Amino acid sequence: MNKSIQKTLDNLQLTGLRVVIAAAALGLIAGCATSNQTAKKTYEFFPPPPDEPHLQFLTAFHTEKEFRGGNDRSFMSYVTGQKPATKEISKPYGVAASGKKFYICDTDYGGLIVVDLQTREMHLKGWDGEGRLRVPLNLAVDTDGALYVADSGRDQVVIFDKNQDYVAALGKVGEMKPRDVALSRDRIYVADIQNHCVHVYDKATRTNLFDIPRGSDGTNVARRLFMPTNLALDSQGRLYVSDTGAFRVQVYDADGNHLRHVGGMGDSTGQFARVKGVAVDRENRLYAVDALSQVVQIFDEQGRPLTWFGEPGATREIQNLPAKVALDYDDVGYFQSYAAPDFKVEYLVIVINQMGTHKVSIYGFGHKK
Q: Which residue from 100, 263, 297, 359 could staple onto 308, CB 3.0 to 4.6 Å apart?
């Protein structure tokens, strides 16, 4: 073939490719513009109308790019078919909010996913040597920034200072199987499924003060613990223990005396099939996750059911194997923009899902303006 003709064909092919790419780009841009112009933003509330809403689903993410407000498909990934590398959460369980950060226990990675609300970045925090985590399940952050991590692979609670340097570990291998940890001003509470109790330690000396349940409560079927998995403390210092094996949440006072239980086995309102994470707000309302029914139920201070949210079929943001719920009063400003114009968020409700694409779901508890 004549060289000049071949060159002309090559130029035409290159031009054609450029035209195709340009057309695709314009099509995508036009599509986005059309979508933005015609799509009406919808908001999802719980309970749904006509009831007065108390919670709004705000956003969800499992990758850094989603957290920043984007998705994982750029224009070049559309053209090449290749998905860019991304930082993502694998198999989360526990979560705590502190210092404008979310700390998430990731059992696959054997470390903590740190979600920085200010920089909009995510990174994995791991340790070597004595501080190495194996299967971190739950954690608590102290007022000074110290981290307490319940690690089911080590069978210990691992303690790091505010600089995230290793300090100490509670428990010896074979002595207990910790599943959660909670902190008060001067105490450490550890849920232990091996010994069917909650260990209470002095925070300063890390010595054991007593175990819950106390005395005869340990043999009382109505007051004992069968499989304590998750913990929460309320404003009065009362301890809430999620007893997965007994389908209920047990409540004890600051001295470990049994007060009441919430829930029971069943699939009706106020009952549980597989109760897990628990949290208590400043009004002493109890939030309790049911991993089997995939809802979070809310109870008043006396343990009476108020409402629930996240049930399958009610919303496209279905919770998928939820494990933990946590409350955050300090970081509302970072998520208020997701709220409906006439809805005022009072605090955040963070739900951790072990499966699906919405590993971290953020809801806002609030009221209509």
A: 297
- C-alpha distance from residue 188 to each of 73, 97, 181, 280, 282 (Å): 45, 18, 7, 17, 20
Residue count (the chain)? 369
In the beta sheet, which residues pair with residue 113?
A: 104, 124
319 close to 333: Cβ distance less than 8 angstroms: no
In this structure, the answer to whether residues 8 and 107 fall within a common structural domain is no
Whether the full predicted model's pTM is greater than 0.90, yes or no, is no
Whether 19 and 159 map to the same domain: the answer is: no
Closest Cα partner for 362 from 342, 102, 351?
Answer: 351
Residues spanned by the domain of 325: 52-368
Q: Is 338 helix (H, G, I), strand (E, B) or coil?
A: helix
Q: Which residues contact 94 (CB under 8 A, 6 or more apart)?
A: 104, 105, 136, 137, 138, 139, 150, 180, 277, 323, 324, 352
Q: What angle do CA 51, 290, 133 make, to 5 degrees?
A: 130
- Radius of gyration over alpha carbons of the chain, in Å? 25
Q: Is 91 exposed, middle or buried (0-12, 13-18, 19+ CB in 10 A)?
A: middle
Residue 47 lies in a domain: no
Q: What is the pLDDT of residues 182-225, one digit of tens each?
A: 999 999 999 999 999 999 999 999 999 999 999 999 999 999 99
